[in-house]
Every structure is written in C-alpha cells, then in structure tokens.
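During the no-cost extension, the postdoctoral fellow (Dr. R.K.) reprocessed legacy sequence entries with the updated structure-token encoder. One reprocessed record is reproduced below for audit purposes.
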Amino acid sequence: MTTQRRAVRKINEAEEARDTLGAALRRAGIQLPALDVRPVSRTDVSGYALVTLGECSAPVARALAAVIEKGAAR
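Re-encoded structure tokens follow.
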C-alpha cells in the first residue's frame, strides 16, 4: 500500500472516530466547541491521525467527566 493511501485511510479512520465520539457526546447531552482531525503531519507513534477534542468550559469538562465516571462504574 502506498504511503499516500495509508495516510488517507488513517485520516478516514480518525474522521469516523471523531464522528462516533461527537454523536456519543451529543446523546449524553455534551457539546464540545470543536472536534477535528489533525493533518497527516500530526500523527501518533503508530501512524494514526489525531482527533483533536478542542477546548471546553469548566461545566462541559465536569459533565464529560461525570459521563466517563458513570460508564467506568459499570
């Protein structure tokens, strides 16, 4: 597989993950101001494109933490 096709595949995977995360957050009543995917030049050590969660207010951070804690308690 060419490097370019691999990069496109990784970006598509990151975009799908971003969309899945955004939908799950909306179902939990949480809206982050920004969810995006970093360009290919920004990848982690395994070559994945990075999903950026963006900044949020303290109330949104607390709501997100509460949802995570609730899920972790299962």
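The first strand starts at residue 36 and ends at 37. The CA atoms of residues 9 and 73 lie 34 Å apart. The remaining legacy entries will be reprocessed before the final report is submitted.
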